[in-house]
Write a structure and sequence with these properties.
By secondary structure, the chain is an alpha+beta fold. The protein contains 17 helices and 26 strands. β15 and β16 form a beta hairpin. It is elongated.
């Protein structure tokens, strides 16, 4: 529905080191494969070994980039990002990659996840700049209010450190979920938090390396899967090859909701096919909550694998009772009141001839507020369904996520205030069944002690800060933007003056930068 708040993942990240390839286009296609992880903004940074260029804007990957912008992004390495905001509002200033710099070069960074000690990190960064963040280099001083900008600022706070040594010092300070790709002019880096909450995988090209949020992004660029980036690991890739260092011991707590909903079905997580995991959830759901019916149908597309499994285990025929409008996703046109009243028909429309007179089992992956399921049940009844039985391939969502999923607030979660019978009555179904937490975990084939189930259980594996230090807006309006600085400037790469003595252009922080022919437009807001 237009007003429904569905679970959204924080972001998708992609990095590539491949001197003989068009790295900007590889990154574009990698981000295209990761678009489901974030639809608010997209950006790519590239380096040719001398200068680092960035191009980013709000919108979908295909809206932000075209042939001209990609052609301006030359080099042998690149990182990219598609964003859904979890810390920092959805504004252009907060698009990624974020930028920072020292006298030795420029740093670009992309982040999937969410830090829970952002307020503490902000104080550390302020202390490094004499207590006033207006004098911080990079995007923090220009009003970027993301935890990602704080990481970038800390990595570039000490000009005497190399980026790699800075990373080994800064990464252990971070608490929460972070899968990072970052780079300077010569090297691509990847790092993953000690819990490995969000996925991050390493792939091999014929003459290069790729790092991405999901294996599906490796597939689309023709890279073979090597392994996961391990929790607590820092990887560096440059002309000397790949090297690995450990900044923390692994204490794996992978997000179980990646298996339920977030990851693409053609992705593999920690050795388990996401599609197979979801089909198995459907099989176990059928065993736990059987009901007599004429047809099993999914809520497309997220409920499809579980519906296949439910039909297979129950012996009840599988059918497609709904048609999804493939072009309804992100839209900048607000629906009129008439269209809003039609609600879910913007996305789904029933096949009346298939539905009429049948007892239906409708399988979906989760219920958040319940708005969608309520409208769906009503629509199916209007199309002639005799009975509507709802089955959900995850347990009731009762708790918010602080590790990179933008759920509704706890007060908005329907399962927080109602029991299952009450939820069933609220959505108007004939019956409602959720898979058990034990069944969901069993379907993932992961060690239960190595999964985060906080949104279902309320057990948070990484201790949370005080309530006033949590939430999406924790860094908003905490400090003013530096006097005279336009907050819509892209960051350390904006050319402000020219150093005639050295023949080198400088940014507002005095960091030397450069751009190759055709790259100047990549330095400003597109």
């Amino acid at each position: 529905m237009p007003d429904e708040s569905l679970p959204q993942d924080a972001c998708g990240v992609f990095g590539v080191w491949a001197p003989d390839d068009e790295v900007a286009k590889l990154t574009y296609f990698g981000l295209y494969a990761l678009q489901h992880r974030g639809q608010e903004a997209a950006g790519i940074a590239t380096s040719d070994g001398r200068s680092l260029l960035v191009y980013k804007d709000v919108g979908l990957v295909a809206q932000v980039f075209d042939e001209s912008s990609l052609a301006s992004l030359r080099g042998h390495l690149a990182i990219g990002h598609c964003r859904y905001s979890t810390t920092g509002r959805s504004t252009w200033e907060n698009a990624q990659p974020t930028l920072g710099g020292t006298s030795g070069g420029t740093v670009a960074l992309a982040h999937n996840g969410n830090l829970i000690n952002s307020a503490e990190l902000r104080e550390k960064l302020a202390d490094a700049h004499g207590g006033d963040l207006r004098y911080a280099s990079g995007e923090v001083g220009r009003g970027n209010t993301t935890d990602t900008a704080l990481i970038t600022g800390l990595l570039t706070a000490d000009e005497d450190r190399t980026l790699e040594s800075a990373a080994m010092e800064v990464l252990p300070m971070l608490r929460g979920a972070f899968s990072l790709v970052f780079c300077d002019e010569q090297t691509v880096y990847a790092a993953r938090d000690p819990q490995g909450v969000r996925p991050l995988v390493l792939g091999r090209l014929e003459r290069g390396w790729v790092v991405a949020s999901e294996t599906a992004a490796l597939d689309i660029v023709g890279a073979s899967v090597v392994r996961e980036v391990e929790p607590g690991e820092l990887i560096a890739i440059d002309e000397h090859g790949l090297r690995s260092r450990r900044f923390a011991e692994s204490a794996r707590k992978g997000c179980v909701f990646e298996y339920v909903y977030l990851a693409r079905p053609d992705t593999s997580l920690n050795g388990r096919s996401v599609h197979e995991g979801r089909v198995e959830m459907g099989r176990l759901l059928a065993a736990e909550h059987p009901v007599e019916a004429d047809m099993v149908m999914p809520t497309p597309e997220s409920g499809t694998p579980a519906a296949i499994g439910y039909a297979e285990a129950s012996g009840i025929p599988y059918g497609a009772g709904l048609v999804k409008n493939a072009y309804v996703g992100r839209t900048f046109i607000a629906p009129s009141q008439t269209i809003r009243q039609l609600g879910i028909r913007l996305k789904l429309n029933p096949l009346k001839e298939v539905i009429r007179g049948k007892r239906l089992i409708v399988v979906d992956d989760s219920i958040v507020r319940g708005n969608t399921q309520c409208a769906l049940v009503r629509m199916l009844r209007e199309a002639g369904a005799a009975e509507v039985h709802v089955r959900i391939s995850s347990p009731p969502v009762r708790w918010p996520c602080f590790y990179g999923i933008d759920f509704a607030t706890r007060a908005e979660l329907i399962a927080n205030g109602l029991n299952i019978d009450d939820i069933c009555a609220s959505i108007g179904a004939d019956s409602l069944g959720y898979i058990s937490e034990k069944g969901m975990i069993a379907a993932t084939k992961q060690d239960p002690d190595e999964l985060c189930t906080a949104c279902f259980s309320g057990v948070y594996p990484i201790g949370l800060p005080e309530e006033n230090q949590r939430g999406k807006d924790v860094l908003e309006l905490e400090f003013p933007v530096r006097d005279g600085v336009d907050p819509t400037d892209v960051g350390t790469l904006d050319v402000q003056e020219h150093d005639s003595h050295q023949g080198t252009m400088l940014d507002v922080d005095g960091v030397p930068i450069g751009s190759s022919v055709g790259g100047s437009e990549a330095l400003t807001r597109p």
